[in-house]
Amino acid sequence: MTLGTIRVRLTFWYLLVFVPLLIAFSTYVYSQLAGDLRGQFDTALLRLGESAANYFKVLAQTKGPSSAAETIVQELRSAEPIPALRVRNVTLAVFSGDQLLAISNHDATYSISSSQVLLSLRTGMQNVFATDEVAQRRLVAIPVRFGSENYTIVALETIQRLQANLRFARNLILFGIPATVFCAAIGGLLISKKSLEPVVTICGQAERISAHNLNERLAIKNPKDELGHLAGVFNALLSRLDDSFRIMREFMAEASHELRTPLAIIHGEADVSLSQVRSDSEYRESLDIIRDQSKRMTRIVSDMLALARADAGRQLIHLEELYLNDLLEECCHALKKVAASKNVRLEIDSPEDCPFLGDEELLKRMIVNLLDNAIRYTEPGGYVVIRLTSDASGVKISVSDTGIGIASSDFERIFQRFHRIDASTYADQCSGLGLAIVKMACEAHHGSVTVSSQPGRGSIFTISLPHQEPRGSQRTLSSSPIS
Ligand code: ADP
To answer: What is the atom index within ligand 1 of the atom nearest the CA of 423?
Structure first.
C-alpha cells in the first residue's frame, strides 16, 4: 500500500467519524433553536391574549361584554393602541360561547373556524394553541368567565417571520454541512500529508540501504515522537543486521582460510606423489597424510554445519531419557586410545546412575570436544579427570586437566568461533570450533559453560545443565548470536 492511499484512508476514516457527529450536532442545534423560537412565539402570543382578556374583563364591568369586545377590537385597529396590544400583525377576536362578537381582521375568521378552536370554545376552560398551516397563522384561545357567560379571547399572529427564520437556519445548516465536510476533507488530507512526511523521508532513506551500506542509519529528527521511535527501532535493527552480516563475513573468511590449509596439504601431497614413481611405503605415507587432512576437513565442515544449523534455528534436538554416567563412560572409552598414545591418564568420577533428559548426540559431542581439548593441551605424563555430580536443580560436568592452561584474558574469547590461542603449535589438530560447539550444546539444554585456569597448571571447564522439562521429545535449537 502506498503512502498516498494511507493518506486517503486516514482522511476517509476521519470523515466517517466526523460527518455523522456533525449531522447529529446540527440536527440537535436546529431542533433546540426551533423549539426555543416557537416557545418564545407562543409565550408572546399568550401574553398578548391574556392582556386582551384582562382588558376585556375590565371594560365589560362598565360597558357590558358586547361593547367591551368591540372596544378591544377597535383599540387594536387604532393608531395608538394601549401598550399591551401594541403588536403588529396580531388579530384579536372575542367570542361569546361559539358566537363571534368582534374580530379585528375579518380575513382571519377562516383560520379560527378551520382550527379546532371552535370545537373547544363550548367546553374549553383551558388555553388552546392551534396553527393554520395554510394561512401561516398561529392562534391562542383564552377562555374568560364573566358573570354566568363563557367568553373566549382569540389572539392570532402570522408565523411567516418565524418560519422564515427557521428556514434560514435550516438552509444555513444544509449548505454549511457539505461545505464544512469539504473543508474538513481538504484539511484532513493536508494534515495526514504533513504527518506522514517523515514516513516518506524514512522510506526514501531505507530504500537506499542495502547489504553494502548497512552501516548507514536513518536520520532522526525528533527521537521522542512515534516516528522518531520507529526510526530508532529501525536503526537498532540495522545495527543488529550489520553485526550479523559482519560476523557472517568474518565466519566465511575464517572458514575458507581454515579449509585452505588442509586442501593445500592434500594437493601438495598428491602432486609430490604423482611427480615420479614412489615406493609402496612412500605412497602409504602420502595417503596417511591425505586421510588425516580429509579427516580434519570433515571435522571442520561438520562443526560448521552444526553451528550454521543452530544459527538458522533448524537444528532439532531430540530429548530422550539417558544415563549421563553411561554417556561419560562411552566418551572416555572413545578417547582412551588417544590419551594412552599421548601418555595422558584419563579418569572418570561419576555416581552410579544419573538419569537425564537430553540430546544424546549433542551431549556426546560436547563432552568429546572438552576431553579432546584437555588431552590435546596436556603434556605427556599429565592427567585429565571428568567429574559428574547431580542434585535436584541439575547436573554439573567438569573436565579438569594438568595441561598448559589458559590466561584469564582469553576466557571469553576461546568460545568464539575459530579463535585459537596458539594456532601454530596445534595447527593441524584443531579447528577452533570445538568450544563454540560446546557452548551451543549447553545453551540448547538451557545450561552454561565456564572455565577456570592457570597458565602452566591446568584448566577446569564446568558445564551446568538444569533438568529438562519432559514436555516434548523434540524442539528446535537456536544458538545465541554468532560470536
Ligand atoms: P580447537 O579446535 O583449536 O581446540 P576449541 O574451540 O576447542 O578449538 O578451543 C579454542 C582454544 O581454546 C584452543 O585453540 C586452545 O587455545 C584453548 N583451549 C581449549 N581447551 C583448552 C584446554 N583444556 N587447555 C588449554 N587451552 C585450551
So the answer is: 14
Q: Is the CB of 300 under 6 A from ligand 1?
A: no
Per the CB < 8 A criterion, the answer to whether 216 and 209 are in contact is yes
Q: Is the CB–ligand 1 distance for residue 434 below 6 Å?
A: yes
pLDDT single digits (tens) 113-167: 766 666 666 666 788 888 888 888 898 989 888 888 888 888 998 898 899 999 9
**Ligand 1 pocket mutation pick from 335, 338, 377 by most atoms within 8 angstroms of CB:** 377
CATH fold of 316-477, please?
Heat Shock Protein 90 (3.30.565)
* Phi, psi (degrees; rounded to nearest 5) at 194: -65, -45
pTM of the predicted protein model: 0.56
DSSP 245: H
CA of 460 to the centre of ligand 1 (A): 12
C-alpha torsion sign, points 462, 468, 472, 475: negative
Atom of ligand 1 nearest to the CA of 420: 14
Residue 276 gets which letter from DSSP?
A: S
Catalogue the E-assigned strands of 97-229: 99-103, 128-132, 137-146, 149-158
Between the CA of 435 and the centroid of ligand 1 the distance, in Å, is: 7
Does ligand 1 have an atom closer than 6 angstroms to the CB of 431?
yes
C-beta atoms surrounding 213 within 10 Å: 10
- What confidence tens digit (pLDDT) does each residue in 280-333 have? 999 999 999 999 999 889 988 888 888 888 877 766 688 899 999 999 999 999
Q: Which atom of ligand 1 is closest in space to residue 458's alpha carbon?
A: 24
6 Cβ contact partners less than 8 Å away, ≥ 6 residues apart: 192, 196
CATH class of 226-307: mainly alpha
For the chain, give every domain's residue range: 3-164, 226-307, 316-477
Residue range 162-221, pLDDT digits in tens: 999 999 999 999 999 999 999 999 999 999 888 888 888 888 888 888 878 888 888 887
* Residue 354 alpha carbon to ligand 1 centre in Å: 28
Give the cell for residue 225.
Answer: 515522537
Q: Which atom of ligand 1 is nearest to the CA of 401?
A: 23
3-state secondary structure 39-108: HHHHHHHHHHHHHHHHHHHHHHHHHCHHHHHHHHHHHHHCCCCCHHHCCCCEEEEEEECCEEEEECCHHH
Sign of the torsion formed by the C-alpha atoms of 370, 371, 374 and 376: negative
Tell me which of 3.30.70, 3.30.1490, 3.40.50, 3.30.450 is the CATH number of domain 3-164.
3.30.450
